[in-house]
Amino acid sequence: QAEDGIRDLRMSRGLGDVYKRQSLIYHDKRLLALVENGVPHHVAASTLESFGAFDYDGKLTHPFTAHPKVDPVTGEMLSFGYTFDKSPGCEYFLVSADGKKQASVPVTLHNNRNIMMHDMAFSRNYAILLDFPYLFRLSNIMNGKSPLGMADDEPARIGLLPRDASDASQLRWFDIESPCFAFHVANSWEDGDNVHVIACRSARLNMERLSDDVDPTKTSKARKGAVLYEWVFNTADGSVKERTLVDIFGEFPVCDEQNRWGYKTRYVWYGGQGGGHFNKLIKVDLFDNNQTKVFQLPEGHVNDEFVFVNTNKVQYKGDHDPSRDAESPDDGGVLLGFCYDSTRNTSYLLILDAATMTEKAKVALPARVAHGFHGKFITKEQIENEIRGDKAL
Q1: How far apart are CA 71 and CA 65, in angstroms?
Q2: Which of 74, 182, 370, 386 satisfies CB 3.0 to 4.6 Å to 199 for a cystine?
Q3: What 3-state class would DSSP assign to 19?
Q4: Nearest to 44 by CA among 17, 80, 5, 18
């Protein structure tokens, strides 16, 4: 906090701010704690010991998103960073499977605008960048308003950039229906000339209240809240198709990250909202007319983000293959997440069968777990092989 009362939104590196992390990623035998206005912090998964800022031997000189993506087939990590204090405001980069950061690619946003770009997507051949009109305006702070807000009169667009690009000359922007914003992408993939992106999209956005669905007579476009949504970009003819998949407000969409990130997936899950808070988990079958199954929490219970863990004995990476559903169904696993019981002021770990959306187990916790943003499931093998500091265990 600056002396004049204006918060410093520039890149943060200090060890003391590790508690302000938003998300986690495991890559190249390291667990990284992430926040989008700073560099990652290396944290031991086995002990939670912090080893401080991790900047790829000085090659990372700009912020690092809270939502990088790891390709389960190649092992590469795709990431970006954005800033409010320089132009261009976004830089994309690739990290090889063995942890070597490639040169960052500067990306010019629409009219060099200062936007909040919280997430990204990717596919077999593309990094997918989200240029939405959710703008940072310093003048709003001076007038006592939130610095972030939707610009209704500005375009929204999504860009496809070859993953291994050395510059932005091959970046291709597609205009989409505006205004809109998406905090989080569920998944994305290629199918012939088409690139699919599934996300929780808001037509309107209010940071103070992510959902005002108390008036069910309004359509989702008239209400402030995110619904599961699909964009399809045709790289041959340049056309765009978009549609709402499920008209139930929610956020924190997930898929089988260990096997399907960036590849065709049959199922996604997300946290559903009712009465202004998260109170359900929703499963969506993308191949069966977006049929849903819902697990409803008891009255007074609130869920945070859940993660999907594949428990199939036989697993495979890449595009979903229907011929393998018998031995390795795409929903063969569990959902794990924390819930809060406001009637008792206690928290518990809830484990759901991801296929049937029924409760498998509930683990009472000795203390309340504060509501957070994102979690990550780490396997026993990843913990056993992790690098702590500069040394492997």
Answers
A1: 16
A2: 182
A3: helix
A4: 18
Alpha-carbon distance 219 to 112, whole Å?
A: 33
Strands (DSSP E) contained in 314-372 are 333-341, 346-353, 358-364
Please work out, in degrees rounded to the nearest 5, the angle formed at the alpha carbon of residue 233 by the alpha carbons of 229 and 235: 165
Tokens for 13, please give them: 């590196």
Q: What is the distance of C-alpha 310 from the center of its chain? A: 19
Q: What single DSSP character describes residue 153?
A: T
**Out of 54-63, 97-106, 222-231, least confident range:** 222-231
Strand order, beta sheet including 277-285: 250-254, 267-274, 277-285, 291-296
| Calpha distance 372→338 (Å, rounded) | 9
Segments in 162-318 forming alpha helices (H):
257-260
Distance CA 194, CA 233 (A): 5
Beta bridge partners of 298: none
Does the reported pTM lie above 0.85?
Answer: yes
- Render pLDDT for 107-163 as a digit per residue (tens, 0 to 9): 999 999 989 999 999 999 999 999 999 998 877 778 888 888 888 899 999 999 999
- How far from 127 is each of 54, 107, 133, 165, CA to CA, in Å? 23, 12, 20, 9
Helix (H) or strand (E) holding 250: strand 250-254
**DSSP, residue by residue, 292-313:** EEEEEPPTTEEEEEEEEEE--S
Task: Tell me the pLDDT band of 243, cut-offs 50, 70 and 90.
Answer: very high
For residue 179, cis peptide bond before it (omega within 30 degrees of 0): yes
Lowest mean pLDDT among 15-29, 252-266, 283-297: 15-29
Count of beta carbons in the 10 Å neighbourhood of residue 184 = 19
